[in-house]
């Protein structure tokens, strides 16, 4: 029977359906590099953007805000390696970030180590910590895993707040002792160097996450996200791959902590709270989990809004509103939390999916 | 000996607080597979509603029968908020576990911020009846009455919950649903009504914990629910998801361990020990003391 079948000629594709290369398609692969270049030369600009930033772009205040946004963007991208790419819902990511911040701070301030040693030790320590705790936590799956990581992170928060051995400074936090640091990283005039450091960290995280997700390991991780049992049936050990992702993500977070510690100039206990992990989750979901730029965008935007909404909340425009509106609006977390809930319902793909979602709309507008 | 009795009874008071929060969490998780981060919000709503009622509601006050009315108002408010949350936010998302968690996370952030916007971030003095500030002598140990009140309330809630689960039709449906939800649905029973009911019960228990916790601590603040919630999660995992009795055992173990280690060791060491207990239980018995294994 099969031999008597005649191959059908390929159907003619109508002209309007053949995909045409977009005008700038050749430039697309270079866009990240262009963006990186623009971000790198940004501090040389003295443009004043009233309403968006308080001072000109190269003022220390603006640069510090941008640097924090970049670090948090990198942190969100690292968290996405767990949540968006592997499908692990960890509620303890703040622990590894806090380990980076407090580790650097304690090693520099209390032990008097030079920065490069402290940074190296901290990143190594944070990675080992993630590997050890991950090895225990990954014995559970799904929601139980979320709860266990949350509990581990809570221990970190308790250890920091109760100030065992007088190392962490307790509730007041621990200011960084800058006397032993390289001169280029100290002082208000050198904020630009910290900005570049933050940019380098972000670029590193994006590069690592991109390379990992493109590698064979990354494909296994995506498989774990979609159907864990199937990976097991294929003869691969889900536990090991998840542990790799968890450890790598923890190490990246610890490295982010080192940079953050330098930018802020110390450590404060609020970075150990579970609220930071929850914010990371909000950033990733708002940006678009499992995409290359979504989490970065979400992290940068969230941090920016968190800073700016405080100013917006105390502005005259909000204060002149009736009390039942102005009081909630003066709370950044209320605004962000509400936006987040709406995003879960109406924009499941986050910011990254905005283009594909708007495309049909624009298309129909263009050709009525 | 006095110290041991005092520590045991205050530890049980703490356990009672954990149990009130954890029982609802455990039932909601066991039946509906919802990890409810907004549970701390129900606690906060209960506490603030009681606080508000004691000052503003006619017939309610901070003493005697008026206080009972105030607490009843708080519990009602907590249950109402829980039902609203279930109907409006959670119901459209059933069988999408991750999205549900995300929504409750957003709700906990926004809700606590809303409480803070309305009543300020600073702790407010909680209205409490005069007798709760006194102590009662139990075998020579002076135990604060507020702690005893918590224990009595938790035992009553436990007995009530068990009777409800054991002897009523809806209790039967909930127990069956925890065991195998698909089978209950296949038998033509609308499990979603049970979901709403479980949310109402959990919200009411959490609100009661908020009100009585306010009496115990003497103050009420927007973030109070969050810190209790983490220990309640630990209690739920140790006790086994979906088991009320398991939650009770686990709450007692956690409360006593925390109180004794915090007293005899360094302050804060007890909290660390509790997480250690969690790790041990997970390694030896991943399904908890009495419960089904949690699936993804």
Overview of the structural elements:
The complex is a heterodimer of chains A (368) and B (296). Chain A has a two-stranded antiparallel ribbon. With 368 residues, chain A is mainly α. Chain A has one domain (56-366): Orthogonal Bundle (ABC transporter involved in vitamin B12 uptake, BtuC). Chain A is built from 15 helices and two strands. In chain A, helix 2 (60-86) packs parallel to helix 6, helix 4 runs antiparallel to helix 9 and helix 11 packs antiparallel against helix 14 (332-346). Chain A is 65% helix and 1% strand. Chain B is mostly helical and 296 residues long. Chain B has a single domain (2-284), classed as ABC transporter involved in vitamin B12 uptake, BtuC (Orthogonal Bundle), CATH 1.10.3470. Chain B is 74% helix and 4% strand. Chain B contains eleven helices and four strands. In chain B, strand 2 and strand 3 form a beta hairpin. The interface between A and B is large, with 44 and 46 residues.
Task: Fill in the keyword field for this structure.
heterodimer, A: 368 residues, mainly alpha, ABC transporter involved in vitamin B12 uptake, BtuC, globular, B: 296 residues, two-stranded antiparallel ribbon, 74% helix
Helices and strands in order:
The complex is a heterodimer of chains A (368) and B (296).
Chain A (H helix, E strand, L loop, with lengths): L30 H11 L18 H27 L6 H18 L4 H23 L4 H21 L11 E2 L15 H24 L1 H11 L1 H6 L4 H27 L1 E2 L6 H14 L6 H20 L2 H4 L3 H7 L2 H15 L7 H13 L2
Antiparallel strand pairs in A: 1-2
Chain B lengths: L1 H31 L6 H18 L7 H27 L6 H23 L4 E2 L9 E4 L2 E4 H23 L1 H11 L1 H6 L4 H27 L1 E2 L3 H16 L4 H21 L4 H16 L12
Antiparallel strand pairs in B: 1-4, 2-3
């Amino acid at each position: 029977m099969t031999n008597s079948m005649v191959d059908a000629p390929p159907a003619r594709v109508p002209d309007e359906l053949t995909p045409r290369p977009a005008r700038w398609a050749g430039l697309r692969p270079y866009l990240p590099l262009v963006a990186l270049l623009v971000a790198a030369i940004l501090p040389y600009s003295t443009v004043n953007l009233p309403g968006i930033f308080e001072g000109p772009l190269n003022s220390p205040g603006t640069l510090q805000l941008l640097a924090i946004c970049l670090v948090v963007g990198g942190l969100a991208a690292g968290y996405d390696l767990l949540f968006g790419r592997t499908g692990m819902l960890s509620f303890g990511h703040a622990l590894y970030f806090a380990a980076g911040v407090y580790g650097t701070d304690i090693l520099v301030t209390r032990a008097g180590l030079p920065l490069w040693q402290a940074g190296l030790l901290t990143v190594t320590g944070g990675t080992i910590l993630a590997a050890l705790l991950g090895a225990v936590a990954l014995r559970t799956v799904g929601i139980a895993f979320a709860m266990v990581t949350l509990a581990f992170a809570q221990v970190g928060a308790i250890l920091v707040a109760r100030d065992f051995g007088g190392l962490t400074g307790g509730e007041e936090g621990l200011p960084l002792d800058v006397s032993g640091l390289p001169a280029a990283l100290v002082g208000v005039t050198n904020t630009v160097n910290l900005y570049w450091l933050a940019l380098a960290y972000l670029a590193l995280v994006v590069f690592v996450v991109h390379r990992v997700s493109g590698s064979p390991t990354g494909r296994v991780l995506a498989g774990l996200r979609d159907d864990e049992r199937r990976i097991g049936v294929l003869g691969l050990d889900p536990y090991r791959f998840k542990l790799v992702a968890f450890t790598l993500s923890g190490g990246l977070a610890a490295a982010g902590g080192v940079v953050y510690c330098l930018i802020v100039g110390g450590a404060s206990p609020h970075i150990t709270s579970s609220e930071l992990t929850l914010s990371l989750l909000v950033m990733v979901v708002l940006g678009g989990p499992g995409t290359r730029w979504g989490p970065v965008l979400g992290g940068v935007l969230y941090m920016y809004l968190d800073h700016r909404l405080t100013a917006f909340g105390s502005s005259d425009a909000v204060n002149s509103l009736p009390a039942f509106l102005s009081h909630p609006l003066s709370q950044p977390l209320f605004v962000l939390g509400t936006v987040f809930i709406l995003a879960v319902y109406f924009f499941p793909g986050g910011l990254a999916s905005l283009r594909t979602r708007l495309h049909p709309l624009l298309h129909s507008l263009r050709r009525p | 000996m006095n110290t041991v009795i005092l520590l045991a009874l205050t530890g049980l008071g703490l356990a009672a607080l954990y149990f009130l929060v954890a029982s609802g969490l455990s039932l909601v998780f066991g039946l509906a597979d919802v990890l409810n981060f907004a549970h701390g919000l129900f606690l906060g709503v209960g506490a603030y509603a009681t606080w508000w009622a004691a000052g503003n509601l006619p017939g309610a006050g901070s003493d005697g029968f008026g206080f009972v009315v105030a607490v009843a108002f708080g519990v009602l408010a907590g249950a109402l908020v829980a039902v609203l949350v279930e109907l409006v936010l959670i119901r459209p998302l059933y069988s999408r576990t991750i999205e549900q968690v995300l929504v409750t996370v957003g709700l906990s952030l926004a809700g606590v911020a809303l409480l803070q916007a309305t009543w300020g971030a600073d702790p407010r003095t909680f209205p409490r009846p005069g007798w709760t500030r006194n102590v009662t002598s139990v075998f020579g140990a002076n135990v604060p009455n507020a702690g005893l009140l918590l224990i009595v309330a938790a035992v009553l809630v436990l007995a009530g919950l068990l009777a409800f689960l054991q002897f009523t039709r809806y209790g039967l449906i909930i127990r069956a649903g925890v065991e195998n939800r698909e089978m209950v649905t296949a038998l033509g029973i609308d499990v979603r009504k049970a979901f709403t009911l479980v949310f109402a019960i959990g919200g009411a228990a959490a609100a009661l914990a908020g009100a009585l916790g306010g009496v115990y601590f003497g103050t009420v603040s927007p973030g109070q629910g969050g810190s209790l919630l983490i220990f309640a999660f630990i209690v739920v995992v140790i006790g086994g998801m979906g088991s009320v009795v398991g939650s009770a055992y686990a709450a007692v173990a956690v409360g006593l361990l925390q109180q004794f280690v915090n007293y005899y060791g360094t302050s804060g060491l007890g909290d660390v020990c509790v997480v250690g207990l969690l790790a041990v239980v997970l390694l030896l018995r991943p399904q908890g003391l009495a419960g089904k294994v949690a699936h993804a």
